[in-house]
Batch of 2 targets.
Target 1
Amino acid sequence: MLYPQINKHRQCIDLSGFWDFRFDFKNEGLTENWENGLVGTRPIAVPASWNEIFAECRDFLGPAWYQTEFVIPWGWENQKIFLRFGSINYLSDVWLNGEKLGEHEGGHLPFKFDITERNKIEKNKLVVRVDGNLSKEHVPPSGRTMNYPDTNFDFYPYCGIQRPVLLYAIPKEGIKDITVITTIEGTNGIVKVLLEKNGVKGKEANGILTGYGVQIESRISLDATTEIFLNVENAKLWSPESPNLYDLKVEILDNGIVFDEYSLSVGIRTIEVKGIQLLLNGKPIFLKGCAKHEDFPVVGKGYLPALITKDYDLLSWIGANSFRTSHYPYSEKMMDMADRLGFLIIDETPAVGLTFNKDIIDRHLELCQRYIKELIERDKNHPSVIMWSLANEPHRSRAAKDFFRAMYETARKIDSTRPITLVSQVGASERAFEFLEVICVNRYYGWYTHPGQIDEGCKLLSDELDKINNKYQKPIILSEFGTDTLAGCHSEQPEMWSEEYQVEFIKNYLEVVKSKDYVVGAHIWNMCDFKTSQSIIRAKGLNHKGVFTRDRKPKMAAHFLRKIWYKT
Ligand code: GCB
C-alpha cells in the first residue's frame, strides 16, 4: 500500500484536527443509527488515544463514535478517491453519508476505502465507531486477570483513531504499487523496481534515480514488462554510519506525456544471515539499542511528530543504532525517519501474548497472517527495516511451531530478502527456531527470577545462550533485558528498583553479550518508562524499565549507555 503523496498527479488532504466525539456507554449507537449523524458530542483531537484525554473514561475501552465533515476539492472529478486510516485500535466501522464503507479489525496497520462513487459534491459526513474492548479472540488477546484492564500483554490498551486519516486522489489508471529491491555487485548497486499497475495498456514507465551527482534513467514498455532495472556505478550504500538515500521517481507515460508519478527514497543495501553472523552490505553488524513503545502522556499511542524526533535524538544521544517496534508496527513517519537517520529496525507484528487455545487458534492464525502480510506491504521499501518479527513472547505450546511456520511462509512469499525472527522467552526448546533465520530471546534473570543477584543471573544467561547456540548455530539477539527502576531511587550497593541496580544489570549483561561471537545484538528493555494496565507489579500503572522516564529524562543507565556506546 503506497503512502499517499502530493505531486502533479496525486493529491492528499490530512483530516487530522478536532472531530466530534461521543462515548457509547450503553452500546446503543448501532440500534439508534448514530451512523447518520452524532448528537450530544464533544470535541476530540484526531489522532490521539481517548484514554488520557477525558478524566472519567480512562479505562473505558469502547465503543465510542467519531464524526467529521469534509468537502472534495475542485479538480478531483476524474480521479480515484480514497479514505485511508493509519491506525484505529481495535475494531472500526466506517460510514460515509450514512452508508457503510466497511469495517476493520486490528490496531497499528493502515486500511483504506475507495469512495470514488460514494462521495458527494457538497459536504461529506464521515462517522467512525471504534471498539477497543479486549477479547480472547483478538490479537493481541486479553487474558491476565491480575491486570486491569485484563491485557495478556504489558502495555496499556489505548483506543481511538491513533494515526492520521487521509483523503487522497490518484489517477484512474496508473501506479498501484512499487516494490524496490536492491543488490550489490562489486562497487555497483542494482536497484530493481517492480511495478503493479491499474490499467495502463499500451503505456510506458520511466524510472529515474537521482542523487550524489548522478541521474540514471530506464524506460520500459508496460506491455512487455513491469520491472525496471537501474544500475548505479560506485553506489553510495545505505548504512547506519552513512544513511545515503537516492531519490527514485517512477513516471507512467502515454505518448511521451506523464500522467502518473510516484517518488520514494531508496537506500541501496543488502541484509543477510551467514552462519552465526548478520551481514549488512556484506559486513557483520551488531545491533545496539532498545526496544520501544509508542507511548506518551495525554496522546497515549497517538501520532505525535515531535515525539518521533525527540526519541530519535535520544537514541542517537546514547549511541544506539537500532530498535525493535515492540509490540506492533509503528507509524509510517517513524519508519521514514529511520531511513533518513540510519537506524536498523526489527519490524514486529501486533502478535503479542498468543495463547494457541484450541477454540481460537484458527482465527488467530488468519489474523496473524493478515498482519504480517499488511506489515510487509506497508514497510517493504524501507532500507532501515532489516528483519521481520512474527510475534513477541507467545505462550509455550506444541501448536506454536506449525502456527509460526504458516506465518513464516506467508512472509517469505512476499519478501525473499529479509531475515525473519520470532521474539521468544521459551529459550532453546522454541521449535520455531529450527526454521527462522535469527533467534531473539528475552531474559530477566536477576529481576523476575534470582532477584537482587546479578552475578547469578549473568551466569544463567551465559549458559543458556551457549545452549541455544549449540543447538541452532544461528545469530542470536538478546532482544529484551532490564530492570524496573524508579528515577531518583538510589542505593550505595546496587539494590532492586534503584538506578544503580539498573546500571549494574545492564553493564553485566552487556559483558556476557560481548563474550559471545554469535550474539549479534542487544536491545535493552525499554527505552522509556511506559503506561501499562494496573497491577501489583506496576507502580503508578507504569512499567519502569526505561533508561529514560516517560517524559524522556535520562536515568543513570542512559548516561552509562552514552559512555559506552556513543562515538563522536
Ligand atoms: C517481556 C515482554 C514485555 C514486558 C517485559 C517486562 O518479556 O516482552 O512486553 O513489558 O517483559 O517488563 O515484564
Target 2
Amino acid sequence: MSKRFYLTTAIDYVNGQPHLGHAYEKIVTDVLARARRSLGEEVFFLTGLDEHGQKVQQAALDSGKTPQAYCDELAAIWQAFGKKLNLSNDDFVRTSEPRHKAVVQAILSRLHAAGHFYKSKYSGFYSLKEETFLTEKDRRPDGTFDPGYGEVVQLIEDNYYFKLNAHQQWLIDYLEANPEFIQPAQRRNEVLGLLKHELEDLCITRPLGRLNWGIPLPFDPDFVTWVWFDALVNYVSVPAAHADKAVLSVLDAPELETQNPALELWPADIHVIGKDILKFHAAYWPVMLKAMGLPLPKIILAHGWWQKDGEKMSKTTGNVVDPVAVIDEWGVDAFRYYVVRELDIGPDGNWTDSGFQARYSAELANGLGNLVNRSLSMLKRYRNGLVPQRHNELEPEADQVVRQTISRLRANQPQGALQAIWSLVNRANQYVDQTAPFKLAKDPAKAARLDEVLFNLAEASRVLAVLLWPFIPGTAERIYSQLGLTESPDQLKNAAWGGLPVGHRIAEPAALFPKKETTKR
Ligand code: ME8
C-alpha cells in the first residue's frame, strides 16, 4: 500500500446554512480529488463540520436542545448538502465525534508533557461573536472595536497558552525556503507580511464556567479546548482513525489503535481553505504540527471570497445565493461548472444571476450540449448510429487539449483546465460548421468524407466526456451512455484519441443542458 493523495477542505461551522462560499470550496476540492483519481492515483478526500464553541452552545440553548442534538440535526443537513453537490469525499468528520476528541486530547497531553503550554492570567477584551481575545491594536482610532467583532466584553481569567512565539523565526524560514507551501503567491506574501509583526502566544483554552461545549482539557478539568485548536486537528484525527502510522507513531497513545485497515495519509497534499482563515492554517497549524513532531502539509491552497451582485453576501439583507435552489432549477453540473469556470483559485468572485445564465446558455447549452447532441444525432441519422472508420483530423488538437488539461489539473488550476477543454468544444463546433455534414449527407459521392467527419465528432465528444469527468461527472457519464459505452469516463488515460470502437453502435442522443428561458436578472 502506498501513500494516498490526501486533500481536505475547511470544516464548516455547523451553525448556519450552507451557502455559495461553502459550496465553491467543496466543489473545487472535489474537482481536484476526482482529477487525481482520474490520473490513476489513490486519493483520500476529507471534509466535515466544526461543531464546538460558544456560538453553537448558545444556538442550541436558544432552540431548547442539547448541543449534541442540535449538531446532529444540522449535520444531517450539511451531509445532504454534500450529496447534492455530488462530492466524492471518502470521509466526513464531525468534531463532536469520539474518534476526533480522543486525538485532540492525546495531542494536548503530549504537548503539555513536552512543555509547550503554560497557564497565565488574561485581562482584557474579548469578542463573543468571534470567540477571540482582542488587544489595544484591534481598536479603531476612535477607541471602538470593529462592529464585525460584535459585543466586546472585558474579561479577567486564567487560561492555557501555546508557546507560538518561540517558533516564529522557524516559520518564516520555512516559508522562505518553501515557496510552494502557500498558494497562490499573493497569499504567501500576506502571511510573510503578517509575520513581520511579533506573533503572540496562542490562548488554547476557555474556562469551563464560560463554555462547556468543547473538548475537555485532559490535564485540567476546569477548561475546554479553544475551538481552533480542536478544529485544525481534524486533518490528523481522521488519519489516526484510519490507523495512519505517520500520525499514530507520534501520538504515543495505545488507546487510539484501531482495527481499521491502515491507510497512509499524512502529510496532507493539499489543504483547500478560504482566504479569511489563512493565519490559522499558515501560521498556527504549521507550528502545532512542528511541536507534535509531524511533517507539514505540502500545499495550503487559499481561495478568494464570493460576493453577490458586488456586495457581501448577508442573510440579514437577503443578498445570498442558495446553491440548493440553483441546483434544483439548473442541475448540479451547471452549478459545478459555473463556480469553477467563473472564479480562479485566488481572487475574489462575484455571482450574478445573469452571469450564471449567460455561461449556461453559451458554454453549456449552445457549446458542449449542442456539440454532443448534433454529433450523435447526425451519426444516428446518417449512419444508423454505427461508428465509422477511425479518422484523425481533430486528433492533434484533442491531444494538445488533453495535455494542457492534465498539466493544469496537476498544477491545481481547475479554471485553466476548463478553459483548455472549451477550446476543444469550440473547435469541434467550428468543425461542424466548416465541414457541414448535413450538406455532405445529401451527396452520395461524399459518403467517405461524411464518415470521416462523423468519426471525428463522435470521438471528440468521447474525449470531452473523459476530460470533463472531474468537473461535471454526471454529464460526462451521460455522454458516455449516449455513446453506448458502458464503462465510466473516469480515467484520463482514456482521453487518448481513438478509443471509440469502429462499428460500435451508439445509444440515443438527448439534450444535456436543456435550453431555458432566462428571464431573471
Ligand atoms: O471558518 N466565499 O468555517 P466557516 C468563499 N470552521 N468562501 C467562503 C465564503 C465566501 N463568501 N464564506 C465562507 C470556518 N467561506 C472554520 C474552519 S478549518 C479547520 C475550520 C469559506 O463555515 C471559508 O473561507 O466560516 C472557509 O474556508 C469555509 O468556507 C468554511 O467557513
